[in-house]
User: Fold this.
Amino acid sequence: MNKSDLIAALTKKEHLTEKLAMEIVNLVFDEFTNALKNGDRIEIRGFGSFVARKYDAYKGRNPKTGKVVEVKAKRLPFFKVGRELKKRVDG
Assistant:
């Protein structure tokens, strides 16, 4: 499923216009992004949680050339699946 599929499903299920459904989906994604940028944790009960993890700088290697490169410190989103979702997906 991608973003357009989600918008289409919301449009059909809730009898919304495509424009309104798109605004709702974009609002949710924007707020998730803002929360992670601000260091907040997002928890959706029964689904899972998102958090931005901090990774320190390190020396990596370019696999093509073998040259050592400096990789900068970064923050990346991390998703931890919830117990209920795990059970539902597993069957």
Summary: The CA atoms of residues 7 and 24 lie 9 Å apart. The radius of gyration is 18 Å. The helical segments are 3-14, 18-37, 83-90. The beta strands are 42-44, 48-55, 58-61, 68-71, 74-81.
